[in-house]
Design goal:
By secondary structure, the chain is α+β, with helices and mostly antiparallel strands. The chain is 36% helix and 19% strand. Bound molecules: 2-(butylsulfanyl)adenosine. One of its GO terms (molecular function) is DNA ligase (NAD+) activity.
Length: 721
């Protein structure tokens, strides 16, 4: 990897290079592209962004065009991806899985179209139709059907040979096991993209966090990591999705056009992208590109451009391929959402678990249409120029206050400081010193050793625990939050207010439940304070009263015990049934030889990190006292008790389309409160689909699986509210 050290691209035009310089540059670039391929395709851990990768690859190809002696057959410029990783058996693609050339401007698209016309010897008046469709940012998967039955699934690998992930692919709901239709050929290889939606990606990372496992950098990596699992039950637990858009071996094509084949795929049971459109001119292609780009933020999944393809398959066949890509298609990539600005300050935020997070305060700058003033700097090592494995990033350059930096905003993720311009660094700048004391309470902030890896945690944490005001405010916010106790009218702002209020201080969860009584005894009433008034004070007290009997899982989650997210909280609630039982187990489990320790460790999906976290939480005397005070105020309800009276108890419910009387989160919370399980997609296990206006494919899925469908009004009739 030492050859692969990232260097900026040379700006000397290729035509002006000497053969010697071209050779040196070619060698460096080939190593960098190879390393990037390995990192991207094998490790699911990209080491450079798409724009940097594309630029390097383009320069490499340009060098080889100008100096043909540099080109090696089977060299890196010929390869689409990287070799298979060796974990899986290999499958040789009968028709290679190719890649796409890229266009980065409208002019380049016009050139592509002109090239197609030229190649086919067609005049403009004769016209050639193209399709335009989103370029899904996932990983491609080839599915082989014989006599309509799925027999093999293979990743792209190096384009010639991929990995056999058949067992894993069978667990993906959106991949049909059998193809339906009179025109399904004996052999049909359907190709498309496996990807994850944004919400599902967030859920997966939440579970990674709960288990103390590293989080995925983006949905693409998470999808790749989920598909390429030796344990297919892990794949099955991840809501992977699939769009079909191409094909491999298919001796009899079901239609004469790209559009026609894709429409056939839909009839056969695949999902195809609704934004695919047939266009007659460059202008129409660009218009569809703009339309897709404008919907990018609300699609719910990542796309990184628009793919144009010649529609007529006879013309596609005539156009053929050049080394790694078809002549009849091109990917029009979205520009990276980057902007340059000045880093004015670095603030340290203290989270609920004491994690110190560095936040860049930036001179305001527009990135992809949004004004950005803050960006994440991740952690101490990132600022110093190292990644999570201790390897240098940005060529080892650190980030300093006063630096001119590049900010990147990708999709809906938090903007981040990506690169630093050393040429613009002020002469008097100094390396940033990450605080070793908590800025909120002054306690030592340390980096724990991870017991599993023996390595220092990337995160520095305040050791102040219960005395740290920043942690206690964040813990209170978490306790009342939507997914925990869900107290109406008590949000972040109100928690901050009460935390600092001398008349009605809220320093710990129990204080919330004594607010009304304390207010009654106070001379200065809440209703007279700014921002409240009689009605909102009354409503707040009512909302608090309403939560004195919270569902056990929400109560456990709300405690903010490290590594215990919603899912684990629910598991624990189900397993122990009452808070007393969980608490007794947590205390007894401190003894390593105890049966309680064994039982805790044996719960499915509860790993050693969670066990340790529970023991530590219940072993802390302060927490014991805090719990005693809290349990004097509230009585967590076992899940069954809440659920048994409800008509949807134990049912699997899916919500789709627009809901008018409640938000999606509210609907989910309500269903769960009533003992139902809310799923993201319809399968044969689904009991009920609640569909609002605009419901789409889920309705079809429901029909396919014979799932009962009701509307929002029907839902309220059913649950009585
Ligand atoms: S067509 C021979 N269509 O992009 C052409 N590819 O950079 C086959 N991709 O390997 C590809 N969305 O993984 C095509 N609508 C789409 C796509 C798409 C995403 C991916 C695919 C391909 C890569 C090429």
């Amino acid at each position: 990897m030492s050859d692969a050290k990232d260097t900026t691209l040379s700006e000397t035009p290729v035509a002006e290079l000497t053969a010697r310089r071209a050779k040196v540059e070619h060698k460096q670039l080939a190593a960098q592209v190879q390393a990037a391929n390995d990192a991207y395709f094998q490790e699911d851990q990209p080491i450079m962004d798409d724009a940097a990768y594309d630029a390097k690859r383009q320069r490499l190809v340009a060098l080889e065009e100008a100096f043909p002696e540099l080109k090696e057959t089977g060299g890196v410029s010929d390869k689409v991806g990287a070799r298979p990783s060796g974990k899986f058996a290999k499958i040789r693609h009968r028709v290679p899985m190719l890649s796409l050339d890229n266009a980065f401007s409208d002019e380049a698209v016009a050139e592509f179209v002109a090239r197609v016309y030229r190649f086919l010897g067609r005049k403009e008046e004769e016209g050639i139709a193209f399709t335009a469709e989103p370029k899904i940012d996932g990983l491609s998967l080839s599915l082989r059907y014989e006599k309509g039955e799925l027999v093999a699934a293979a990743t792209r690998g190096d384009g010639e040979e991929g990995e056999d992930v058949t067992v894993n692919a069978r667990t993906i709901a959106e991949i049909p096991q059998t193809l339906a239709g009179p025109d399904v050929p004996d052999i049909a290889e359907v190709r498309g993209e496996v990807y994850l939606g944004h919400a599902d990606f967030a859920g997966i990372n939440e579970r990674q966090r709960e288990k103390g496992l590293p989080e995925f950098a983006n949905p693409r990596n998470a999808a790749a990591g989920s598909l390429r699992q030796l344990d297919a039950t892990i794949t099955a637990s991840r809501p992977l999705r699939y769009f079909a858009y191409a094909w491999g071996e298919m001796p009899v094509l079901p239609a004469p056009t790209q559009m026609g084949v894709v429409e056939t795929f839909r009839r056969w049971g695949f999902r195809t992208n609704p934004l695919m459109k047939r266009c007659e001119s460059v202008e129409e292609l660009i218009a569809q590109y703009r339309l897709i780009e404008s919907q990018r933020a609300t699609l719910g999944y990542d796309i990184d451009g628009v793919v144009y393809k010649v529609d007529d398959l006879a013309l596609q066949a005539r156009l053929g391929f050049v080394s790694r890509a078809p002549r009849w298609a091109i990917a029009h990539k979205f520009p990276a959402e980057l902007a340059t600005t000045v880093l004015e300050a670095i603030d340290i935020q203290v989270g609920r678990t004491g994690a110190l997070s560095p936040v860049a305060r930036l001179k305001p700058v527009t990135v992809g249409g949004v004004v950005v003033t803050n960006a994440t700097l991740h952690n101490e090592d990132y600022i110093r120029g190292f990644d999570s494995k201790g390897l240098p990033i940005r060529d080892g350059a650190d980030i300093r206050i006063g630096d001119t930096v590049t900010v990147k905003r990708a999709g809906d993720v938090i903007p981040r400081v990506e690169a630093v311009d050393l040429a613009k660094r002020p002469a008097d700048s100094k390396p940033y010193e990450f605080p070793t004391l908590c800025p909120a309470c002054g306690s030592h902030a340390t980096r724990e050793l991870n017991p599993r890896t023996g390595k220092e945690d990337a995160v520095r944490r305040c050791t102040g625990g219960l005395i740290c005001p920043a942690q206690s405010v964040e813990r209170l916010k978490h306790f009342v939050s939507r997914d925990a106790m869900d107290i109406d009218g008590l949000g972040d702002k109100q928690i901050e207010f009460f935390h600092g209020d001398p008349d009605l201080p809220v320093k710990e969860p129990a204080d919330i439940f004594t607010l009304a009584a304390r207010d009654a005894g106070n001379l200065r009433k809440l209703k007279d304070k700014e921002g409240f008034g009689a009605v909102s004070a009354r409503k707040l007290f009512d909302a608090i009263e309403d939560r004195r009997r919270p569902p056990l899982n929400r109560f456990i989650f709300g405690l903010g015990i490290r590594h215990i997210g919603e899912t684990t909280a629910r598991l624990l609630a189900r397993h122990y049934g009452s808070f007393e039982a969980l608490r007794a187990a947590g205390i007894a489990a401190a003894d390593e030889a105890s049966p309680e320790r064994q039982e805790l460790g044996a719960i499915d999906s509860v790993g050693p990190t969670v066990v340790e976290a529970l023991i530590e939480f219940f072993g802390e005397p302060h927490n014991e006292e805090l719990l005693d005070r809290l349990l004097a105020q509230v009585s967590p309800q076992p899940l069954e008790a809440v659920a048994s009276a409800s008509p949807v108890a134990g049912k699997i419910v899916v919500f789709t389309g627009a809901l008018e009387r409640m938000t999606r989160d509210e609907a989910k919370a309500m269903a769960e409160r009533l003992g139902a399980k809310v799923a993201g997609s319809v399968s044969s296990k689904t009991d009920l689909l609640v569909a609002g206006p605009g419901a789409g494919s889920k309705l079809k899925d429901a029909a396919k699986h014979g799932v009962e469908v009701i509307d929002e009004a029907g839902w309220f009739d059913l649950v009585g509210g």
